[in-house]
Amino acid sequence: MAAFVGLCRVTLAVPGSTSLKDKRRVLRSILDRLRQRYALAVAEVGSQDAWQRADIAFACVSSEAGRCEAILAECVRWLETRSDIELLEVDTEIL
């Protein structure tokens, strides 16, 4: 049986952030929601010292490549609805 891994790396702007503490509060909300709602592995993977920028990655596993694509696309759509961030870059890959 084949297994597919969907991986998405997203660069975010957090324009309302005035400190790392502000950014962490916003990111904690995002990461927790992605973990709970979509059962993904999620982490901040870059720009840890920047106040208004964040790089996060999330991954899912499925027996169908199309299911991985659908889950990741739904997560990106959800991120686009948030008013406290802006998506700067999205890179998705199915392995």
TrEMBL record:
InterPro entries in UniProt: DUF503, TT1725-like_sf
Classification via SUPFAM superfamilies: Hypothetical protein TT1725
Pfam family, one: DUF503
Gene3D superfamilies: TT1725-like
PANTHER family listed in its UniProt record: DUF503 DOMAIN-CONTAINING PROTEIN (PTHR36441:SF1), HYPOTHETICAL CYTOSOLIC PROTEIN (PTHR36441)
Full protein name: DUF503 domain-containing protein
